[in-house]
Design goal:
Elements (H helix, E strand, L loop, with lengths): L1 H6 L1 H14 L11 E5 L2 H13 L8 E4 L12 E7 L5 H12 L3 E6 L2 H7 L4 E4 L10 H14 L7 H29 L3 E7 L3 H13 L6 E5 L14 E9 L6 H17 E7 L6 H23 L7 H11 L2
Parallel strand pairs: 1-2, 1-3, 3-4, 4-5, 6-7, 6-8, 8-9
């Protein structure tokens, strides 16, 4: 099942663009001063990545919330985008209720559940196809969030880039899968440590989440330059059980590029393995989506090596069940 869902990702991106083109959003009553994107897990990572994509283009500040309590600044001049694939994510529902009480302009992205029921009472909403794991639906949420940012004049339209990214993935599918198989073989007996620069943290988080959920392993991530001011000190002795995954981008700030080259020598000395991942694509959207797809395949092939069910998330289901009983 997960294999089929990952294979379908390029088609999902195209479907998501068509879905965005049919979305009926309403204009806010008051001028917008800021944006808050609410969502967790597979539903929330789209907000993080969208914020990074429009980092140098957004005309208003954007925050991403992955908890219950919204910031004090949220009011009638705030666009609040609530993304919950199931529509029943309790943290996102609580954030929705708080934003509604503050008079924020709300847009909900969901496949159904309580969030859709609430949104249908008067808020803009985009309904995406149901019946899949949220982590397999990033194409839907990322595209709809970028569409919202464009519709409300906060950032340029990126739908053409998403379609180009889908075409890129289709053309490179077999090569991506072969690279992912090779990387999975190198990681099967090591704990991954994922590094990127701060403008690609969403991609690093996405890979961490997919390795957690699909491959059933622990790992961690950090970003440059921040890790140079703390975590780098930890690399003072050999860690043969760790494998560093380093996301590289030719468009990095020159000083970050220099930092990466210096840090590489340290990782090569102390880590059990060092994996550098360079993206394909001629713009930020294509490169990030390439990385995402490669990471998804990597997590799947690692699940096969480890002989675990990539679809199984019983521990999360048990947590949600326990919470619902309180």
């Amino acid at each position: 099942m997960m294999k089929e869902l990952i294979t379908h990702f390029p088609a999902q991106l195209k479907e998501a663009v068509a879905l965005a083109g049919k979305a009926k959003l309403t204009l806010p009553v008051h001028p917008l001063h800021n944006i808050l994107i609410c969502g967790l897990g597979g539903s929330g990572i789209g907000g993080t990545i969208a914020k990074e994509i429009v980092h140098n283009q957004a005309t208003l500040p954007i925050d991403v919330l992955k908890s219950y309590s919204i910031p004090a600044y949220v009011n009638a001049h705030t666009l609040v985008i609530c993304s919950s694939y199931s529509g029943n994510t309790e943290e996102t529902l609580e954030a929705y209720r708080q934003a509604k009480a503050r008079g924020a302009h709300l847009v909900c992205i969901t496949s159904g559940g309580q969030l859709l029921e609430l949104a249908q009472k008067g808020d803009s909403h985009i309904v995406v196809p149901a019946g899949m794991p949220p982590r397999a639906c990033l194409g839907y949420s990322l595209t709809q969030i970028l569409h919202c940012l464009a519709f409300y004049g906060i950032a340029p339209v990126h739908t053409a880039h998403i379609l180009e990214a889908a075409t890129l993935l289709e053309h490179e599918q077999e090569a991506i899968k072969e690279t992912a198989r090779t990387l999975a073989a190198r990681l099967h007996d090591r704990m991954p440590v994922i590094y990127s620069t701060s403008l690609h943290e969403g991609v690093a988080i996405r890979l961490r989440q997919q390795l957690n959920e699909n491959a059933k392993i622990l790992c961690w991530h950090h970003v440059l330059p921040e890790m140079n001011h703390n975590e780098l000190v930890g690399w003072s002795q050999p860690y043969p059980g760790l494998a560093v995954i380093l996301f590289r981008d030719a468009e990095e700030h020159p000083r970050n590029e220099l930092r990466i080259e210096i840090c590489k020598k340290i990782f090569e000395r102390y880590a059990g393995d060092l994996i550098e991942i360079h993206p394909l694509g001629k713009n930020a959207v294509e490169r990030k989506i390439y990385w995402i797809h490669l990471g998804d395949w990597l997590s799947f092939y690692l699940s096969e090596i480890r002989k675990v069910d990539a679809m199984d998330i019983k521990v999360i289901d048990n947590l949600k069940k326990a919470l619902s009983e309180k």
